[in-house]
């Protein structure tokens, strides 16, 4: 029960990595507010909510509507009290050859992955400072934020920005004893990979499923990760076990990036 008595907000957590982390936080005793773009919670989340009726709520939120985010945080606090943890996970993905990449794709990725990430973090940090909470923020980066990729320029740039903002926010919040860290997953087998694999197949002239197979084999450990492989780091960085760690982005990628 490492998170007993804590209130965690998790963005983009109606499925995939976010939902796996929410389940881990609930198991560790936290109360969780899950935010996502869907009007209604999906069936898988509804079943988990039934298991934790007094610990878990779902709110629709669009992180690109930045003026609304302080109100989103206030509504969450009205249910579970001050926020102790932010798992800042909402993100979108796109790819295209550099010379074919569009302004619309650029705007979409930076609006969610950078602007939404930053202003959600800002809203939660303002609450933590106001309530004198020595909290923890975890921003979801990516191995894509550590290096560029020919077909994935905008996404890589957004995740590099997440890494940089994590460092800056950690330094800004140090005087308040609020820790800000990141997690940089490698290739993680989530439902989004159906979409990603199809895009790579189009631009690299591959059979469907081939890119997914290739990236798994390229990992030093020899396989793609799963959302459950992220939860240990997410619990660690949210808990007092990491009380002297801030401004770090932890690679959880099977050895793909060494730092």
Automatic annotation (TrEMBL):
InterPro entries: NAD(P)-bd_dom_sf, Sc_DH/Rdtase_CS, SDR_fam. It comes from Formosimonas limnophila. PANTHER family: 3-OXOACYL-[ACYL-CARRIER-PROTEIN] REDUCTASE (PTHR42760:SF133), SHORT-CHAIN DEHYDROGENASES/REDUCTASES FAMILY MEMBER (PTHR42760). This is Sorbitol dehydrogenase. Keywords: Oxidoreductase. Belongs to the short-chain dehydrogenases/reductases (SDR) family. GO terms for molecular function: oxidoreductase activity, acting on the CH-OH group of donors, NAD or NADP as acceptor; quinone binding. The keyword Oxidoreductase applies. GO terms for biological process: fatty acid biosynthetic process.
């Amino acid at each position: 029960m490492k998170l007993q008595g804590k209130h965690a907000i998790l963005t983009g957590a109606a499925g995939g990595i976010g939902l796996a982390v929410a389940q881990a936080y609930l198991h560790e005793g936290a109360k969780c507010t899950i935010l996502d773009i869907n009007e209604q919670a999906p069936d898988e989340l509804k079943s988990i909510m039934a298991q934790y009726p007094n610990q878990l709520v779902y709110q629709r939120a669009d992180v690109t509507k930045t003026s609304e985010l302080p109100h989103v945080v206030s509504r969450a606090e009205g249910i579970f009290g001050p926020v102790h943890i932010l798992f800042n996970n909402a993100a979108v993905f796109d790819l295209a050859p550099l010379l074919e990449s569009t302004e619309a794709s650029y705007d979409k990725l930076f609006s969610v992955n950078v602007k939404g990430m930053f202003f959600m973090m800002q809203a939660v940090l303002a609450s933590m400072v106001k309530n004198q909470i020595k909290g923890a923020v975890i921003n979801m980066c990516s191995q894509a934020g550590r290096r560029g990729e020919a077909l994935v320029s905008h996404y890589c740039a957004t995740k590099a920005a997440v890494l940089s903002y994590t460092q800056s926010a950690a330094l800004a919040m140090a005087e308040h004893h609020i820790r800000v860290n990141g997690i940089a997953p490698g290739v993680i087998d989530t439902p989004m990979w159906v979409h990603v694999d199809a895009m790579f197949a189009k631009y690299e002239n591959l059979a469907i499923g081939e890119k997914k197979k290739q990236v798994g084999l390229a990992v030093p450990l020899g396989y793609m990760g799963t959302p459950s492989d992220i939860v240990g780091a997410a619990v660690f960085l949210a808990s007092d076990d990491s009380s002297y760690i801030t401004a770090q982005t932890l690679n959880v990628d099977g050895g793909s990036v060494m730092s």
